[in-house]
Amino acid sequence: MASIPQDKVQEIRDRLDIERVIGRTVQLKRQGNRLTGLCPFHSEKSPSLSVDPQKKLFHCFGCHAGGDAFDFIMRMESVEFVEAARMLAREFGVDLPEREESPEEKRARNTRERIFRANDLAARFYAKTLGSEPRALAYLREERRLSDETIRSWRLGWAPDVWSAMSEALGKEGVPEDVLVLAGLSARRREGHGVYDRLRGRVVFPIALPGGDTAGFGARRADWFGAEGEDRGPKYLNSPETPVYDKSSIFFGLEKAKDPIRRQKRALMVEGYLDVIALHQAGVDTAIACCGTALSGKHSAQLARMAEEVVTIYDGDPAGAQATRRAAEILLAAGVSVRVVSLPEGEDPDTFVQKHGGPTLERLIREAPSAIDHVVELAAKQNSGGGLAGLVKIVEEVRPLLLAVKDPLRRDVFIQGAARRLKIDARVLSQHLRRPDEALRAPDRELRGQRPQGGNVKEDAVPGIEAAMLRMLVENPERVATAVEAKGAVDAFCHPAVKAAVAAGVQAVKAHQPFDAHRALEAVRASGASDGTIRSLRETLVNSPPGADDVEESLKNLLRREYERRLRDLRKRLALEQDPAAADRLSAEVAEVVRAKASLH
Ligand SMILES: [Zn+2]
User: How many A from CA of 539 to the centre of ligand 1?
Assistant: First the structure.
């Protein structure tokens, strides 16, 4: 997608009304100069979401989610920045120049649109053909116990067992052969002209994107079909990679599950398309699956924007156990909690809900252990009686998961739990994890830097007075910047991030340029401040107590603190100074600072 010019982003920022943006999802109540409501990003009964309409910022004092209207939309709608900006531009009447699209981008967009249209027509074709293949219908209705309503709503279909029925039908609708090939629906014949259908004699599952467009198809072999011993290809066949189908970022079922997942802050990962559909039919509507691939970093980043927790229900066989461990590692590294449901031997989610119903599965989900406890338990069972060697093996198995947890507090809790279960000293386990020969690593390179690592680094706390001054500066840039300038007080700010923001404010006022909360936080970010610092400053900005601030008094306090710090420093140096001339110079400096300090009263 084309990027949006910076001045347009600023125009959107200036025009938007954050109260209206957030007010659509959250019922906001006015409280002084702020608005409060129930945070949509975590479950709560009393409101901890605070919105500051002047500063155009929101902050949750419960889960620390926060930012500007762009951040809110990105998180709420699970979209990237550019998409959020487009939505806000549309809402607040900012024209985004279409000319920004290069000819190449335009071509790409046209191609995508043509593929989506072809896919939609193909889905219609397959759905219509399902009625002409009684065995396919019987398979879905009787064997998989899907209702007609489910079959219709998931647009399930049948790809007839002939060479080119779909290609010909779409050709008649005006879809050219090259688009059929580009969409992965058809393949070119090796000899002669024309194309043939890639899916033949299969039950078809359209794979929809969250926005509703059909990105591709999964298709299951019809085992009741064909001659004995005939090779009919793999059990499941998926669309090849196309301009609209990137299997490392697509989930089957997400279009239907996205709202429930956001509401419950939880996603349920299963393995098969039919598992997803059966669970939704049983009322477990947060189920999704990857499409013929393992969970990737892109998948987990997407889930991290929507949910706090993922519960996996994979097969109980060794391959399933491996997939569970791998998925847990990637999700934990993305800051998502992971729990694991183990079904009884020989059951999959589909057969389980058929037998026991959705509510029973929901109970298993609620009671599921964390992925780390699950892996410890499993490894302990497999290596029981293995003595020291067995113990080392267990620790090796759980090690990647423990290391994937970035938050030190959470990691510590898991280490304690694992140590208790294994009857070893938590300190020894902890040391073992940090063996110097293996540096801490993120399991997936692409994950790095994708998520704020909440509370990871010990922050230099921002002194209250500095944070308060920054808030006043943002609320009243002209007056505060002038006062700070007049007293030469920029250097009295000790915290580098705050100093950077104050300097930016003073600079902006001098140049007659606007300065606001967003620009202040930009300067903070540009100074290299950690996510923790940014979050804590945003918290200060949003949490402004109503009423009068005394700029002069605060500035005096700030300077007094600075003078005292300088005096302590000078006197220490003076006490150690051997050279009389240097000592004289220091004494003079002391006298000067004392005078300056006295003049504050
Ligand atoms: Zn919250």
Answer: 12
